[in-house]
Amino acid sequence: MKNALLLLLLFLPSFGGFDPPLSPQGRSAMELQLAALWPGQAPQLQAVELSPPVVAELPLALGAQSLCRVREAGQTLGFLCVWKSMGRYEPFTFMAVFEPDGLTLRRAKILEYTSPYGHEVANPRWLRQFEGRADLDACRYGQDVEAISGASISGPALAEDLGRLQRSLKMLRAQGLI
Asked: Model-level pTM?
């Protein structure tokens, strides 16, 4: 057990300027997801700095606290976004990891969900339907994206925010900023 913990610590990402507002449990969940996505690697998280005029044009106001480049040995492995979406009564925090092209979603994971309602949105099986998609910005909840019982507010909110996030990344890609 001690050796496994030491091994995990060796491969945790380095947070170079990227400091999303997460609880210790949320940060731990994010680190575990990154370690699972890139086993045996030690990716560094490099905050993506955007000017206020660029941010103002994006569907989501991304910045150094919400968007980073995942890198190792000078190579971009992908992009990570940590964002808050609104459930029925309280916001919840999710992470979205995109492939190096900045367009294709690799993983979505709910990091913090404190409301007693709508937690079904964190179901890994339901979240898998978003993975591998480059068309989230055009998806419609209940049609292109399967609806989930018990998450009538948080489900559509997450699907919409994933679409806006992807649209934002497409805009940044077109401007050569990522």
From this structure: 0.84
